[in-house]
Design brief:
The complex is a heterodimer of chains A (about 250) and B (about 450).
Chain A: E1 2-11, E2 14-24, E3 29-33, H1 40-48, E4 54-62, E5 65-66, H2 72-78, E6 80-83, H3 95-107, H4 111-124, H5 142-156, E7 160-164, H6 172-187, E8 191-195, E9 210-216, E10 219-224, H7 227-235, H8 238-244
Parallel strand pairs in A: 3-8, 3-9, 6-7, 7-8
Antiparallel strand pairs in A: 1-2, 1-4, 4-5, 9-10
Helix pairs in contact in A: 3-4, 4-5, 5-6
Chain B: H1 7-25, H2 29-42, H3 54-62, H4 81-89, H5 94-100, H6 117-121, E1 125-129, H7 130-136, H8 138-144, H9 155-163, E2 168-172, E3 182-184, E4 198-203, E5 208-214, E6 225-226, E7 229-234, E8 239-248, E9 253-254, E10 257-262, E11 267-276, E12 280-283, E13 286-289, E14 294-303, E15 308-311, E16 314-317, E17 323-332, E18 337-340, E19 343-346, E20 352-361, E21 367-370, E22 373-376, E23 382-390, H10 394-401, H11 407-419, H12 428-442
Parallel strand pairs in B: 2-4, 3-5, 4-7, 5-8, 6-9, 7-10, 8-11, 9-12, 10-13, 11-14, 12-15, 13-16, 14-17, 15-18, 16-19, 17-20, 18-21, 19-22, 20-23
Antiparallel strand pairs in B: 1-2
Classes of the chains: A alpha/beta (about 250), B alpha/beta (about 450).
The structure holds adenosine-5'-triphosphate and magnesium ion.
Chain lengths: ~250, ~450
């Protein structure tokens, strides 16, 4: 479904991704781990089409089509959704109105139908109806923003959901809600590419079915099964990097 | 410019217009004398307009109508095609379109107002065309007419005084709280006279009202200069809102002159929503605020094409505990320029003032300048200002687009969102249209 080939990405003339290869089949569950600054968010944002990240070499394919020239909106309409590590505040834009627009555009719903669905799904992520009349992310705590990203994911039900640290800064109870919702989406067929620093978000997911990639300095240096996550949780990255000579 | 108009010519034209107005309005002698004072001051009064030269002003006096507007609008098909297209895009129905085109109103008297207001007159709400008020309530009008301006402050005040016509007189008697917004929309399409409505607002003790003036849709005006003057008097504990909605065609210059006295504990919220794309809009409203009084000047500005907007605003906090806020939000597109220069002067203890100015620049040629002025004559006033001028943030745009909204839609949302907090006091029926106009402007459809 998603195929990243020899991807080189620069920001302001500084090369950050230095040849990433990654392949995510439909319905699969992939995890990306790696130290701070290794390029995980850069990879996520590049796949989503952030204009600041310039692809200098390589290709991104989605369902067989090259997408690196497409705008972020076109990628979203193809079925890619990125849940941001740091979602920005958008002053004056009410969550409910924004989500209605999104559902009208992406799913062809009518506004009333969209409204009802949003309110219903919001409850599952602990948002009250009045919260939805606040401005998008404005004044929201870190954890609340992560729940709001997930709300968008369950409303949009993308083919590929990229989650950039949905667990960072999130309290224990919210973490288990978020983790359950990711599993739910995955069960319904959404392919997942999840960036995280800790195994906890993976809950009881079958480790055998996970594909784990470890990034360092803009490259994927190791790929393995779910066991890798627990190993990194226990020992950190040093041992792995030593093994692969990175 | 066809022929040169001399000062002598202009004065002669003004004189004839005064005579015509005096006769037609059957106005008391004092009013005609006041008009002549305007005429007499016109030549010596200074002219400081940065856009309209003195020569152009004289030219305008001789010929206030713009060329190219069809002589007679007899059906909607006679409207300029751009205006017709815009009204259609805004989804304005035929009846209202006729109204905007001047087809549904007579062109000889000033104000269109509702029959049911007659009922409210008994309760102490007086709303009348200013000409009629001059005849009906001469004493009250005399006490409030041209008391907050000097005739000879500028050529524009002098000219306005001489030939003012149209406008409304709003008098809210003690204790009356008007429970509905009063929407007054005046369309005077008299060719020979300049548009110079005079508005008087008197809010007695313990009153409340919300006056909405103008409309959000584009209006077919025949005049290139709009010279309105508003004088408002708020007595103790009066609470009033004046919301001015305007959407001018691109050839119109507006020079709103607004002044208000705000009494003890009184409160005045003065909001202006400027849409469309006029030629220029220059104003410097003044407010004198007494003990614990409060004034808020809110400007929502959409600058399109080469619209030149220069908005001042002087607040004199004269009573203990008086407060003033001058806040503007501007979306500046194309080659438009917006300048804000509010000044708050603290003249009494414990006064508070704040100036804020936010601008969203939508093109490389858009210009924003802000010159906040804070003057304190006491040692315990709290005065502050803040300004933020910038473009749409890439992060916000990307975020919205990454959810499947195209650039145009995402930009519309951000621009509407930027203005949204300032639109809190605008009734819903206008909000819907304001939002639609912003959307159209953002997508270059206006
Ligand atoms: N927009 C940008 N401008 C400048 N430098 C950037 C930008 N985005 C990323 N970088 C740089 O690229 C490198 C990789 O950043 P990235 O955010 O992808 O790391 P990460 O793996 O997501 O880290 P973390 O675990 O801390 O989230 C860092 O050195 C970062 O400073
Ligand atoms: Mg990151």
């Amino acid at each position: 479904m998603l195929k990243v080939e020899n991807l080189h990405v620069s920001v302001e003339d500084r090369e950050i991704l230095k040849g990433v290869d990654l392949s995510v089949g439909s319905g699969e569950f992939h995890v990306i781990m790696g130290p701070n600054g290794s390029g995980k968010s850069t990879l996520a944002l590049t796949i989503a089409g952030h204009p600041k990240y310039e692809v200098t070499d390589g290709r991104i394919l989605f369902e067989g089509d090259e997408i690196q020239e497409l705008g972020p909106d076109e990628r979203a309409r193809k079925g890619i959704l990125l849940a941001f590590q740091v979602p920005p505040e958008v002053e004056g834009v009410k969550i409910i109105e924004f989500l209605q627009h999104v559902l009208i555009e992406l799913k062809g719903m009518d506004p009333v139908e969209a409204y009802d669905l949003i309110v219903e799904k919001a409850k599952e992520l602990w948002f009250r109806e009045e919260d939805l009349h606040r401005y998008l992310n404005v004044g929201f705590s870190g954890g609340e923003r992560k729940r709001l990203e997930l709300l968008q994911a369950i409303l949009i039900e993308p083919k590929l959901l990229i989650l950039d640290e949905p667990d960072s800064g999130v309290d224990v109870d919210s973490l288990s809600v978020i983790s359950r919702k990711i599993e739910e989406l995955h069960r319904k067929g959404t392919a997942i590419l999840l960036i995280t620093h800790y195994g906890r978000i993976l809950g009881h997911l079958d480790r055998e079915k996970l594909r784990v990639h470890v990034m360092k300095d803009g490259k994927i240096v190791k790929t393995g099964s779910g066991e890798l996550v627990d190993r990194i949780d226990r020992e950190g990255f040093a041992g792995i990097f030593e093994e692969v000579g990175a | 410019m066809t022929e040169t108009i001399t000062m002598r010519d202009a004065k002669e034209i003004i004189r004839m217009q005064i005579e015509e107005l005096a006769r037609r309005n059957r106005e008391p002698e004092w009013m005609t004398r006041l008009r002549y004072k305007g005429l007499e001051a016109f030549e010596r009064a200074p002219h400081r307009d940065p856009v309209i030269s003195e020569e152009e002003l004289l030219q305008f006096i001789a010929k206030p109508e713009v060329e190219g507007i069809p002589e007679k609008i007899e059906s909607l098909d006679d409207l300029p095609p751009e205006m017709k297209a815009l009204l259609d895009k805004l989804g304005i129905d035929e009846v209202e379109q006729k109204y905007l085109a001047g087809l549904a109103v007579q062109t000889d008297t000033g104000v269109i107002y509702n029959q049911f207001l007659k009922e409210w007159e008994k309760k102490g709400l007086i709303v009348l065309p200013t000409e009629e008020a001059v005849r009906k309530y001469p004493d009250i009008v005399k006490q409030h007419f041209l008391r907050l301006f000097r005739v000879d402050e500028s050529k524009l005040t002098a000219y306005h005084t001489a030939i003012w016509n149209g406008g409304i007189f709003l008098h809210v008697k003690e204790g009356l709280k008007v429970p509905f917004p009063l929407h007054l929309f005046f369309l005077i399409q008299e060719s020979a006279l300049a548009q110079a409505p005079h508005i008087i607002i008197i809010a007695e003790k313990n009153t409340e009202f919300h006056l909405i003036e103008g409309c959000t849709s584009p209006v077919l005006t025949r005049h290139s200069l709009h010279l309105d003057m508003t004088e408002a008097y708020f007595h103790e504990n009066a609470r009033g809102q004046l919301t001015v909605l305007q959407n001018w065609p691109e050839y119109v210059h507006t020079r709103p002159m607004t002044r208000a006295k705000i009494g003890k504990n009184a409160r005045f919220i003065n909001t202006t929503v400027t849409l469309g794309s006029g030629k220029s809009n220059i104003g410097d409203p003044h407010y004198w605020v007494d003990e614990k009084g409060y004034v808020e000047l809110n400007g929502i500005l959409l600058g399109q094409k080469d619209f030149y907007i220069d908005l001042g605003g002087r607040m004199f906090l004269q009573g203990r505990g008086a407060a003033g806020i001058n806040a503007s939000k501007a979306v500046i597109m194309d080659e438009s320029t917006v300048i804000t220069r509010g000044v708050i002067t603290a003249e009494a203890p414990k006064t508070k003032g704040h100036i804020s100015c936010d601008a969203l620049l939508m093109s490389d040629k858009a210009v924003m300048e802000t010159y906040p002025g804070l003057v304190s004559k006491v040692d315990d006033a709290e005065l502050s200002h803040e300004a933020a001028i910038g473009k749409i943030r890439e992060e916000e745009l990307f975020y919205l687009m990454s959810r499947g909204l195209d650039e145009e839609k995402a930009t519309q949302l951000i621009v509407k969102g930027f203005l949204e907090p300032m639109l809190k006091d605008i009734p819903m029926e206008f909000l819907v249209e304001i939002r639609k106009i912003i959307e159209l402007a953002v997508s270059g459809g206006m």
